[in-house]
Write a structure and sequence with these properties.
mainly alpha; Serine Threonine Protein Phosphatase 5, Tetratricopeptide repeat; globular
């Protein structure tokens, strides 16, 4: 039609061109947009603010923010002034492109040009700043626009309230609720759900009382409301209340969705009530629901607590009978659960069945078998499975290597672990924090201090932070050698890196200092220094609520009583009394 107009020497007006430009922008065809703008210029048809705003929107949605800003500069050069919608599009585009400072600069420019804000612009700022976690900035912009006469709507208030709750600023969020009440701003279902989730997330309020109070605001519960209530009750372990909400939901005409089923089935399974979970699933099958792979995994993980293959397989068959689709994920879940319990023969039968259905073993499948064989340290089968995996062109991953390395390290086969580690790197895999934790601990446990420290330094250099258990192995290695200053420095270093010492950390250091203090060749001043360190550590333990092990106390009491240091025995008695009171 447009081409017919051109051939008939009829010049389309700016409305026709704007409609075409907008259509091409929405479809992402920016090349056609450029051609249309050139045609408009050639035919003397001036674009208006709507035309330019459509073009700017097209460029911004495509992530071409700088090009979108250039279009705005061009419109200003021909005396077409951008409006709040133009700026809103650009500011939103800047945020989505990660150009936070550019978005704020455009907002300042808009203000200096006298363009007034509206609730859509405010929502753009609130949503984007909320995603960035910059709620102080979001509040500041909210208050700025409020001071300039803008009346935020319920969408603005809801968005800000949601962000404040998620950032842990509950008092500010509740202040907004009071403000909404005072201004008689309506609470729609979305606002009520945000308030409900926010209050339940704090964990200080009883679920039913929160629900009752929000109903007073006019809440008409929807599926999200019921899901939130069921989830809250499940987290509190109140499964009977969760089931009652489920019944209330269905009686109100709202059908559960996959999220509802996942929440409640998981909750029931976690408390060991698998049969009730299965009854619930049987109930929803009648309304067309089919168990998902996620549900299958939840149920089988719970069934594995019985450590009986017959129960696991029976639950699997029941879910299949309810319409569970037997895909690769479902087969892999069943294999993984069986292998986790060391039932590799049963898992092999599942694998054969899986292959008969046309599915091939993938990385997840092989990893499950490797894990199963590693549990019983059947290294011949572990490496045979690994070799088969490579021969069939199935790529291992870091988890494959970590599983094998952990098993080798557990039995002290560190030469074999080192060879495998080198092979892993040779195949182009980058070790992760777990890899280093395994190796540092493994070498440390067999007294290979040089290698464990070397790997620890490599780990730190790569930006990984060791676990507490890894630090404990290193500290023990130094303490065993009587190098207590180095052991103490490691404890300090772990705290600097944000790793919290546990009771075992203190036990290791206490025993180390006590053993060092009993060395006959030690000078009196150094012996006293050792005992001072013991007292400091015991005080720290008490402050943190830790209890020394019996074996640790056996080292402490003789070490001090022999030298007449009754003050520490007195402290231990006082410590026991405070623990009992």
């Amino acid at each position: 039609m447009f081409q017919t107009l051109l051939k008939s020497n009829i010049t389309p007006n700016h409305i026709t061109y704007t409609a075409l430009v907008d259509g091409h922008c929405k479809s992402g065809d920016l090349k056609s947009v450029e051609i249309l703008l050139q045609q408009m210029e050639q035919k003397g048809v001036l674009p208006n603010v709507v035309t330019f705003s459509s073009v700017i929107n097209g460029y911004a949605k495509s992530g071409m923010v700088e090009a979108a800003i250039e279009i705005m500069r061009k419109m200003v050069s021909i005396n077409v002034n951008p409006n709040v919608f133009t700026y809103n599009t650009l500011i939103d585009g800047c945020f989505k492109a990660g150009k936070h400072d550019m978005a704020l600069a455009l907002y300042e420019e808009m203000q200096s040009n006298g363009v007034e804000e509206n609730e859509f612009l405010l929502d753009t700022f609130l949503n984007n700043l909320k995603k960035l976690g910059k709620m102080d900035e979001a509040e500041a912009i909210f208050m700025d626009m409020l001071s300039k006469g803008l009346s935020p709507d319920h969408v603005n208030y809801t968005s800000l309230m949601d962000g404040l709750f998620k950032k842990g600023k509950e008092s500010d969020a509740l202040q907004l609720v009071e403000e909404m009440k005072e201004k008689k701003i309506c609470f729609d279902t979305i606002a009520c759900n945000v308030l409900l989730n926010g209050l339940l997330g704090i964990g200080q309020y009883e679920v039913q009382s929160v629900y009752a109070e929000i109903r007073k605001l006019g809440l008409v519960p929807d599926i999200q409301t019921f899901n939130s209530l069921i989830d809250a009750y499940c987290k509190e372990g109140k499964l009977e209340s969760a089931v009652k909400v489920w019944v209330e939901m269905k009686s109100s005409g709202i059908m559960p969705n996959s999220i509802t089923c996942n929440i409640l089935v998981k909750g029931l399974c976690e408390v060991g009530d698998i049969e009730k979970a299965m009854d619930l699933l049987t109930d929803v099958v009648t309304i067309g629901f089919r168990p998902s792979p996620a549900i299958h995994k939840i149920v089988l993980d719970a069934a594995s607590g019985h450590t009986r293959a017959d129960i696991i397989l029976r639950m699997h068959e029941r879910l299949v009978g309810m319409g569970l689709k037997l895909d690769q994920t479902v087969h892999n879940t069943l294999i993984a659960v069986l292998c986790k319990l060391g039932m590799t023969r049963k898992a092999m039968s599942v694998l054969e069945n899986m292959r008969e259905r046309g599915f091939s073993a993938d990385t997840t499948t092989y990893n499950a078998f490797i894990h199963g064989y590693c549990k019983s340290y059947q290294f011949q089968k572990v490496f045979a499975t690994y070799s088969e995996m490579l021969a069939k062109g199935v790529p291992p991953n870091v988890a494959t290597y970590n599983t094998m390395l952990a098993s080798l390290s557990a039995v002290g086969l560190m030469n074999e672990a080192a060879d495998l580690f080198n092979e892993m790197k040779g195949r182009g895999f980058v070790p992760n924090a777990n890899t280093y934790d395994i190796l540092v601990s493994g070498h440390g446990k067999i007294g290979n201090k040089k290698e464990s420290i070397k790997l620890y330094c490599e780990m730190i250099t790569k930006g990984f932070v060791p676990r507490t258990s890894t630090y404990n192995v290193l500290i023990f290695d130094f303490a065993k050698a009587g190098k207590m200053r180095q052991a103490q420095e490691l404890m300090h270093e772990m705290q600097v890196r944000g790793v919290i010492p546990n009771s075992s950390t203190y036990d290791i250091l206490l025993v180390g200092w006590c053993k060092l203090s009993k060395r006959p060749e030690l000078e009196r001043s150094l012996r006293l220094s050792c005992r001072s360190e013991v007292r400091k550590l015991l005080e720290e333990m008490k402050d943190k609520g830790f209890t020394p092990k019996e074996t640790t106390l056996c080292y402490i009491n003789p070490g001090f009583s022999k030298s007449g240091e009754n003050d520490t025995e007195w402290w231990l008695n006082r410590w026991h009394k405070t623990k009992q009171s």
